[in-house]
Amino acid sequence: MTEVIVAGAGPTGLALACELALAGVEVLVAERLPDRIKQTKGGTIQPRVQELLELRGLLEPMQARAVSREPGGGHFALLPVPLDCTAWDTAHPYPLAIPQWEIEEVLEERATALGVKVLRETEVTAVEQSDDGVVVTAGDRRIEARYLVACDGAHSTVRKLLGVPFPGRPGTYTAVLADVRLSSVSDLVPKTLGHISTMTREVDDCWVMLVPLGGGRYRFTGGAAGEEPAKDRPVTFEEIAELLRIVYGEQTVLDTVDNASRFGDATRQIDSYRVGNVFFAGDAAHIHPPFGGQGLNLGVQDAFNLGWKMAAVLRGRASTDLLDTYHAERHPAGAWVLHITQAQRVFADPRPSADVIELRKVFTDLMRLPEANRHLAGLMSGLSHSYDLPGDHPLVGHRVAGLDPSLFLAGRPVLVDLAGILAPDLGATRVQPVDGLPGAILVRPDGYAAWAADTDPDLNALVGDPCWSLRG
Question: DSSP state, 167?
Fold first, then answer.
């Protein structure tokens, strides 16, 4: 018997496994594939997730593997105005470009170092639930666990086994995603990794985004407008070569295709992130159009939210009611990302109407206004996200910026006294004042304020917060 089974060894599943194992929870990860797919895929880590990774000492190894690029902001709907996150008081205002398989490798190295067992070629084929837990059939094993977390992607086997509906909007198109090598290039091909608007070209009904990865390698994304959705149709060498020729000219010649897949723009979200003792996270819970580098980041934030809560319940330091806050907090977060990615679909249409072209111009001008840019930058980076938590202080429910990340390496809540307003017997960590932060804060393991006070702290509210008993 194990305590938690995680289905899926992608970024969401591995991040969750790390969070649980850090708290001493016994975790088994079941992955149906025999090996990690070395494809760039969701290769962007947004500023908020960089902050979360830094709290656990995971950002530095990610940075060491990142693709070299000039500092630049993110984007909204491919429009040519970089999003400026510097106004959000973060040490990481720019997206980090790193192939998804490299992200997974860093996370798996940490997970296994913490004692997590990762079983490959082990697909979940049956799930039985009881009041006490779950019994999962995976490969040739029958495993008992207290909880199962489905992090097994958009086509989640666990979701299908339990008959959980996946309501939403079906896809309207498919496109190709591939890692390629070019034997020759025209002057139209981007030489360095810059803002996404400089790496996307449209010619007639065809569009391609080429992201240089170094060494003659590129991440290719492209398709033809109006093409019927056909995600199961194999991607061919000739298909990619023809799109390159049309969009970048005869001088741009495809050499090899390292790997390729198709993706669509469907928008779906399950109604409940918890079904008994089974939880859903990442693409198993929500999918959306691939605009703005949101998917991987949304899933990792799911993992950071669920991990400390599940560990607290398993260790008997919190009631099972705490697990219900996972859905209460993360379902609205997912719904909001679906909202902003669907909105971008209008602007990013490769065959825009005359009205949409004019709308693009108007919205682009709005994005140049500092307040509008700051608002969109906060949404797309995750820096503006907050939770509706009880408490009167305006910081409660918001991310806490400016504290030493090393305070959170252990993955536990931290009570911080910045102004000497707490009694010594409360066991607070005394730190120097930080501009913009109150006198004292109880910070959750995922970096959000659970309680805060400027002066005359309400100690009843402090010790009544679920995070209070999880310290130390």
Answer: -
Q: CA nearest 303: which of 6, 2, 63?
A: 6
**Nearest-CA neighbor of 14 among 100, 141, 94, 95?**
100
pLDDT at 231: 67
Instruction: Quote the pLDDT of residue 323.
Output: 98
Q: Scan for tokens 């902001």, then name that residue.
A: 73
3-state helix, strand, coil in the chain (%, to 5): 35, 25, 40
Q: Torsion over CA of 405, 407, 412 and 417, rounded to 10 degrees? A: -120
Q: Go through the chain and tell me how many residues it has.
A: 472
Residue with tokens 């503006």: 384
Query: With contact defined as beta carbons under 8 Å apart, do 274 and 326 qualify?
Result: yes
Contacts of 361 (CB under 8 A, 6+ apart): none
Dist CA 185 CA 50 (whole Å) = 34
Q: Based on C-alpha coordinates, what's the Rg of the chain? A: 23
Q: Which residues of the chain have pLDDT under 70?
A: 226-231
Q: Which of 151, 159, 132, 113 is nearest to 3 (CA)?
A: 132
Place of tokens 């398989």: 101
Structure tokens at 74: 């993110």
Q: Rounded to whole angstroms, how far apart are CA atoms 233 and 224?
A: 14
Give CA angle at 190 (350, 79), nearest 5°: 40
Q: Which residue has the tokens 């902050």?
A: 51
Q: Are 118 and 112 a contacting pair, CB within 8 Å?
A: yes
The model's pTM: 0.95
Whole-number Å distance between alpha carbons of 287 and 120: 24
Q: pLDDT tens, 250-297?
A: 999 999 999 998 888 899 999 999 999 999 999 999 999 888 889 999
